[in-house]
Design brief:
Layout: E1 4-8, E2 15-18, E3 21-22, H1 23-30, E4 38-43, E5 46-48, E6 53-54, E7 58-64, H2 68-89, E8 94-95, E9 100-101, E10 104-110, H3 117-133, E11 138-143, H4 144-154, H5 157-164, E12 172-178, E13 181-184, E14 198-208, E15 217-226, H6 229-244, H7 247-253, E16 257-259, E17 268-270, H8 272-291, E18 295-296, E19 302-304, H9 305-311, H10 313-316, E20 322-326, E21 329-333, H11 338-346, E22 357-366, E23 382-392, H12 397-415, E24 420-424, H13 434-451, E25 456-458, E26 468-474, E27 480-489, H14 491-495, E28 500-501, E29 507-508, E30 511-520, H15 521-531, E31 545-549, H16 555-567, E32 572-575, H17 581-590, E33 595-599, H18 601-606, E34 610-613, H19 624-636
Helix pairs in contact: 2-3, 4-5, 7-15, 12-13
This protein binds one RNA strand through strand 14, strand 15, strand 23, strand 27 and strand 30.
Length: about 650
RNA sequence: GCCCACGUAGCUCAGUCGGUAGAGCACAUCCUUGGUAAGGAUGAGGUCACCAGUUCAAUCCUGGUCGUGGGCUCCA
């Protein structure tokens, strides 16, 4: 029967169309015409191609290339075009998967010679040809068997594997073809390759098939793409800008730290300014922890291997640990701080009245990280955690987790970070009973819900001893790094036979939380440097002010000002070199110093300094003591 | 650990299609004493990452080692 269907835009009036009307035709009538930047549409909420034939009453929404969903579709289509270009130039390359990602796309190929930078150029120019041909993307639904046969005949064994691994109840799959290239794909896609105009291939990398290191290493080509050339240019410019914020570059330029081959990879050497920054952060930590009822403790760097066996680390974490021998006894260099804290708890009988007990340690740990993962301050082999272990009764768990989550949120606000929260559940290689895992996971999730913190669940990503909540912040290139984490642990209290005497006079087992707020100080500093591009707020600046003299005859007042400011607690340096004022200002500016204190004849006569701010603004001249007060005031809200 | 790329002065980078290297900045000395983002001159500074091999000759070619960068796996 030829009954019409009724279709409307959200909030609009429905119009009648013949059953099977194509999306693009419908939009031409009820939309504002079909714009050239239209990539697809949502029909009753599901994204479909413009060629999709509508079979029932529907609400239809256009998807423009400029929207988030549109860019996703566009980039996904770019990945297909890239795959076509690769197979045109390298017929033996097998296509695997190629999704859109944030800001771009990639496609993984099995191609053992690997791609060279020249190959990438060749692929890119072939992509431009394909785009110029303006080939339509044609969708076809085929049976599983037909699809397997098709890809088998093309020699695409990865595609065959993907189809064979689909759930049994899926009977048909969709394939998309543009020109002579056919790919297995759910879609939707842009109408034709002509929309692929603003893209750039960025890099080539290895990636394991299905993300498993036991599998074959594939060749991944990353690209970025946008709906317009302007947006592409803007994005490429932002990447260049981000590179200038790289903490490794700023670490050298601002003389904060070094990582030296001679000393070893992943081992950070802090210079005075970097250590000043670190000291400020650590002082802040101690003060904030004392406010929240933590006791500051400290354990040794090495503990007997037997103790690591007892804790389970020897069995589950050994490959990440360093060992050493002392008097023919094997010792493990600590990769975590919990063991000493266990021993502190066990040093006497505990009552329910003592709980919760919170031990805080700025604990330096060593972990054997694989060479390929080391990265500036963000991934190192020796680092210091702002670590704490909270031992409490099970019924106190929820409150403790919430308090920690609040602490984290406070810290993130102080340091000016946005963050994402993930809940990680039980991994494969884990210890402990199902019941405990369930209880612990529930406690973490419950606290998140109670606190109204949005989070995502990361299945199977927990620590071997318990589930965890991770807080992640981003570096200049938008890579996510885990900083704060809250981990629930029923196992360690059991292994160490921790107990407390309850109200009932009986022994009970406490629950333990491992948690860090900033995480690793090194990593946190890395992201912090990138966050501020090295221009730290006054309270964090290693050098808050530089005294700059106009000529040599101003040096003695400069020296006096320096002494007086140091006495007043200002972190100040003097630049009394025989250089022009402009030169010294420029240097202080490039060092991103918050204040430059200019001293010339006028200032000496008045017993003052003339502060110039990092932003170029000059303040009224004032006495050194008035300046010290100003610094104190601006820092007081953080300290 | 795996894939790809890279390693030349403190930093950023040229360069040599095999005959032991150059710039700018930084550094030192001197001149200059200059009021808000680079004053001038002179000078010093490099086993061209390291170890083998090929060659009359290697910074350059080949192999290995170490390190770095971008990813993957893993993780604070």
């Amino acid at each position: 029967m030829a009954a019409d269907i009724r279709i409307n835009m959200p909030g609009g009036a429905a119009q009648a169309f013949p059953r099977g009307a194509e999306v693009r035709d419908v939009l031409a009538v009820i939309g504002a015409g079909v714009s050239p930047s239209l990539v697809a549409a949502r029909v009753n909420g599901a994204a479909v191609d413009l060629s999709y034939k509508i079979q029932e009453d529907a609400v239809i929404e256009p998807i423009e290339a400029s929207s988030a969903a549109g860019l996703d579709i566009l980039r996904h289509s770019m990945a297909h075009v890239m795959a076509q270009a690769v197979q045109d130039s390298f017929p033996e390359a097998q296509a695997t998967i190629g999704p859109a990602i944030e800001d771009g796309f990639y496609y993984d190929f099995d191609y053992s010679p690997g791609f060279s930078p020249e190959d990438i150029e060749r692929i890119e120019s072939r992509m431009r040809e394909i785009a110029a041909e303006n080939l339509p993307f044609v969708r076809r639904e085929v049976s599983r068997e037909e699809a397997v046969a098709l890809f088998q005949q093309k020699g695409e064994k990865y595609k065959v594997e993907i189809i064979n691994d689909l759930p049994k109840d899926i009977k048909t799959v969709s394939i998309y073809a543009q020109g002579g290239y056919t790919d297995l794909c759910r879609g939707p896609h842009i109408p034709s390759t002509g929309m692929v105009k603003a893209f750039k291939l960025l890099s080539i990398a290895g990636a394991y098939w299905r993300g498993d290191e036991r599998n074959r290493m594939l060749q991944r080509i990353y690209g970025t793409g946008f709906d317009t050339r302007q947006r592409l240019e803007e994005h490429l410019r932002l990447i260049e800008e981000a590179k200038k914020r790289d903490h490794r570059r700023l670490g050298r330029e601002l003389d904060l730290f070094q990582v030296n081959d001679e000393a070893g990879g992943g081992l950070v050497i802090f210079h005075p300014k970097g250590m000043m920054l670190r000291t400020i952060i650590e002082d802040w930590e101690r003060k904030e922890h004392l406010k929240r009822g933590y006791g500051i403790v400290m354990g040794p760097q090495i503990l007997k291997a037997d103790l690591w066996k007892k804790s389970g680390h020897f069995d589950h974490y050994r490959e990440n640990m360093y060992f050493t021998e002392v008097d023919e006894q094997l010792y493990g260099i600590k990769p975590m701080n919990c063991l000493s804290h266990m021993l502190i708890y066990k040093s006497r009988i505990r009552s329910y009245r003592d709980l919760p007990i919170r031990y805080f340690e700025l604990g330096t740990v060593l972990r054997h990280e694989k060479a390929g993962v080391l990265h500036g301050l963000l991934r190192v082999r020796q680092f210091t955690q702002d670590d704490a272990h909270v031992l409490c009764a099970p019924e106190q768990l929820n409150g403790e987790i919430k308090a920690i989550a609040e602490f984290v949120q406070y810290a993130m606000k102080i340091f000016g970070f946005d963050y994402e929260v993930e809940l990680s559940t039980r991994p494969e290689n884990s210890i402990g009973s199902d019941a405990d895992w369930e209880l612990a996971t529930g406690a973490l999730e419950g606290a998140l819900k109670d606190s109204g913190i949005p989070y995502e669940v990361n299945e199977g990503d927990g620590a071997f001893y318990g589930p965890k909540i991770d807080f992640k912040i981003k570096d200049a290139l938008k890579r996510k790094w885990q900083c704060a984490t809250i981990q629930c642990d029923f196992t360690l209290p059991e292994r160490f036979e921790l107990s407390y005497v309850g109200e009932d006079g009986e022994k009970h087992r406490p629950v333990m939380l491992h948690r860090v707020i900033l995480g690793a100080i090194e990593r946190f500093m890395g992201v912090l440097i990138e966050q501020y591009a090295g221009a730290f707020p006054l309270w964090l600046s290693p050098v808050q002010a530089v005294i700059v003299t106009v000529t040599d005859r101003h040096i003695s007042w400069g020296e006096e000002v320096r002494q007086r400011l140091i006495s007043a607690g200002v972190r100040v340096e003097g630049d009394f070199r025989n250089e022009k004022l402009g030169f010294k200002i420029r240097e202080a500016q490039m060092q991103k110093t918050p204040f430059m204190l200019v001293i010339g004849d006028r200032e000496i006569d008045a017993g003052q300094v003339a502060p110039r701010q990092r932003d170029g603004k000059n303040l009224e001249a004032m006495t050194p003591e008035a300046f010290a007060l100003l610094v104190q005031e601006q820092c007081s809200q953080f300290l």
